[in-house]
Design a protein that fits this description.
By secondary structure, this protein is of the alpha/beta class. About 40% of the residues lie in helices and about 15% in strands. The chain starts with 14 loop residues before the first strand and ends with a helix.
């Protein structure tokens, strides 16, 4: 008797879940629906990823973060009212305005490529991608059994790393042996032992240029242990992958991660290398140069949960929605994000955002609304954690020491 679909229970199954090889589906729609319904959690259990029950075998930070996760799990998911997608009508009007403004042909070509290639990632797609990568990594750890698995939360508490770790902890808690915000805290018996095989994991939502991960990668390559560095992400920029692989051969991209081409690659694909170079030469004139001086790593991707980031130039452009007229030095603005009403969209008309503005200032003054993970108030033992320049672990330790 043929196997039926795990989700709909009606249609014959045509394939199995690639991770657990247990759940069967009649097609991608049912598999996607079942993942959201709860298979993501069951899949992790079936491939042997189980929370460690004996606190004695865990590093102290792992035990504390497990408690933090349990207490703050309600903060993991965006609600529908917090989702702001792209306004495609205004995107089209923006391109038309660029064309009508008398801007050089290169700028018009750029605007068209921007609008055509911009990828919107909903929270649902984003969280599904994170779950798949987490299960992929956890399964590999179960199979290869390294001597240590170090998860690094790199950044202060209101950055994305804390929130992403909260999202993926259900899948990784059973395989992580050490969790840290400071690699110097990892025992020398692990880092200075050439016979130890160590997996280093770093969660984040998106690595555009690879700069943040690069600091961690450079630190772990100094260890004498055999190191494998794995990003726990759903998406990565192609420039980030290139730069991190140049730092060390220990860096690997899980097969479940989507690699998004850089703006440079997009323009080259749309217009050819010669034409793309002409476009970038035009954009490298003031005031565009301040925005696209990082065009090697700028990536055309927009997340529901993340409306502003000083290293994500196109995202900043979406917030500000600029169309520059080279002859009159005027700026035309359009609301490119749905539901950004004038009352809460705080950008002054006719003002270009300074690309060097720190993201905390950008959020306070310009974003509609703040990135989701910057709005969260976490607690530990019922006590609110501060939103100062401290990591989640530093916050937890400060409460314990009181």
């Amino acid at each position: 008797m043929p196997q039926v679909c795990t989700h709909c229970r009606r249609s014959p199954a045509v394939g199995l879940c690639e991770q657990c090889e247990r759940a069967a589906y009649c097609g991608e729609p049912c598999q996607s629906a079942d993942w959201k319904k709860g298979h993501a959690q069951k899949c992790a259990l079936r491939i042997g990823v189980r929370p460690a029950e004996d606190p004695a075998v865990l590093s102290e930070n792992v035990r504390l973060f497990s408690q933090f996760h349990k207490e703050n799990s309600k903060n993991r998911n965006l609600e529908p009212k917090q989702i702001y997608d792209i306004n495609h009508d205004n995107m089209f009007n923006w391109v038309q305005a660029v064309r009508a403004s008398g801007s050089p042909d290169e700028i018009v070509d750029f605007a068209q490529s921007f609008a055509k290639n911009l990828r919107h990632v909903s929270f649902s797609e984003f969280s599904d991608a994170l779950g798949r990568t987490s299960i992929d990594i956890a399964g590999r750890i179960q199979r290869e059994r390294p001597d240590a698995v170090v998860l690094v939360i790199d950044g202060v508490i209101n950055k994305s790393n804390t929130w992403i770790t909260l999202l993926v902890w259900s899948f990784l808690s059973g395989v992580v042996t050490h969790l840290t915000d400071d690699l110097a805290d990892i025992p020398a018996a692990i880092t200075n032992n050439p016979n130890k095989r160590v997996f280093v994991l770093q969660p984040d939502d998106m690595s555009y240029s690879g700069t943040q991960m690069g600091f961690v990668v450079a630190d772990v390559t100094d260890w004498t242990s055999q190191v494998t560095f794995l990003p726990v992400v759903g998406f990565m920029g192609s420039a980030a992958v290139k730069s991190l692989k140049e730092i060390t051969s220990a860096f690997e991209v899980p097969s479940t991660v989507s690699v998004i081409p850089s703006l440079k690659k997009v323009l080259k694909k749309d217009h050819g290398s010669g034409r793309a170079w002409e476009i970038m030469q035009t954009l490298n004139q003031k005031p565009w140069s301040d925005y696209y001086g990082v065009w090697e790593s700028a990536t055309l991707i927009y997340f529901d949960h993340k409306l502003a980031d000083r290293v994500s130039i196109p995202t900043k452009m979406l917030v500000d929605a600029v169309a520059f007229n080279a002859s009159t030095k005027e700026v035309t603005k359009f609301r490119l994000i749905h539901n950004c009403e004038d009352a809460i969209y705080k950008t002054d008309t006719g003002k270009l955002i300074d690309p060097d503005t720190q993201f905390v200032d950008l959020d306070d003054e310009y974003t509609c609304p703040k990135a989701y993970y910057k709005t969260l108030v976490y607690t530990f033992n019922g006590i609110p954690l501060t939103q100062k320049d401290e990591s989640v672990l530093a916050n937890i330790r400060s409460i314990i020491s009181q």
